[in-house]
């Protein structure tokens, strides 16, 4: 019922134990079959959703947090997969997308025009 937005059958007037059932599925003698694409019960959801070209503004390596501008698909506290853009909006990426293993990471990495978040600013308030 939720999958196709059907309302079901009435709760009275001779209906017994079939309130959430499908009802009639097709004609009797002619065509004698069910048409392809008929809305029937089945699995719902669980599809893979991809959002393209979101900007990563800040990476906090200490807490493993990404600051992303835009909508991220999925539920709260779900696992997401982040990868480089395959269709680039511009050729020169202003933010490093990959670090070598020998390079020591700082606690936070961010674009130059963004100001770093300092804990002293929040402790004084």
From TrEMBL:
Keyword annotations of the record: Ribonucleoprotein, Ribosomal protein
InterPro entries: Ribosomal_uL3, Ribosomal_uL3_bac/org-type, Transl_B-barrel_sf
A single GO BP: translation
Region (Disordered): 1-43
Any one GO cellular component localisation term in the record: mitochondrial large ribosomal subunit
Gene Ontology MF annotations: structural constituent of ribosome
PANTHER family, A to Z: 50S RIBOSOMAL PROTEIN L3, LARGE RIBOSOMAL SUBUNIT PROTEIN UL3M
Homology family: Belongs to the universal ribosomal protein uL3 family.
Name of the protein described by the UniProt record: Large ribosomal subunit protein uL3m
Highest classification ranks of the organism: Eukaryota, Metazoa, Porifera, Demospongiae, Heteroscleromorpha
